[in-house]
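Late entry, evening session. Most of the bench is empty. Finally got around to the prediction I had been postponing all week. Sequence below, unchanged from the version circulated by S.P.
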Amino acid sequence: MTARTARQIARATLTREILDAARARLATDGPGGLSLRAVARDVGMVSSAVYRYFPSRDALLTALLVECYDELGSAVEAADAAVDRTDHAGRWLAACRAARTWSVTHPGEFTLLYGTPVPGYAAPPDTVGPAVRVVLVLAAIAAEAEGDLGPGVSDVTGLVSAAGQYLVRRGWPAPPAEVVARTLMAWSGVFGTLSFELFGHLDNAVADPADWFDAVAARLGADVGIRPA
């Protein structure tokens, strides 16, 4: 390994401080209100200096998206890896719970990832890989479980062909369209439930959000053929 210079260390340190300040601003100002000028004030820099690290607000948003998607993905992957490979129901619940734990402890970051899109910002292609890490875990568990799906209620083959082709490009065997569709439905169900919880839509509707989430996750798992042994 090549030793880093003092200049490289200083740059990495300041980049980290800027990202941390920006993440704190997500919780108070929301993604749409993120301002390089405000972040600069928080780290004690003039705004022109911050532009040497992130040339625009969009560049900062992209860095935050990649970092937060990767954090969430790593948490879900670690939770899945900690469970016996043959316990598909246990793996599914652990992965879903890890997604919830990260989300409820990072509400500002969750809003960036799954809340209202920031006006004028379009996420670039390099955010796609980090963004799909969670659904790839869910898809892998579903594929390995090989559970009985039962009949589908409609033909989804054409609707999910792009998702199936994406998995093939990543080296997966061609998955059945029904498995892909139900995994996508489960993915949206997991994060839709989290959105309802974090944005207050479950208030006075369910007795305990954590228990409700577990119940939803179990039903979504059953729909992709994952049931407790």
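Two things to note before I forget:
The chain has a mean pLDDT of 93.
The two ends are 48 Å apart (CA to CA).
Will write this up properly tomorrow.
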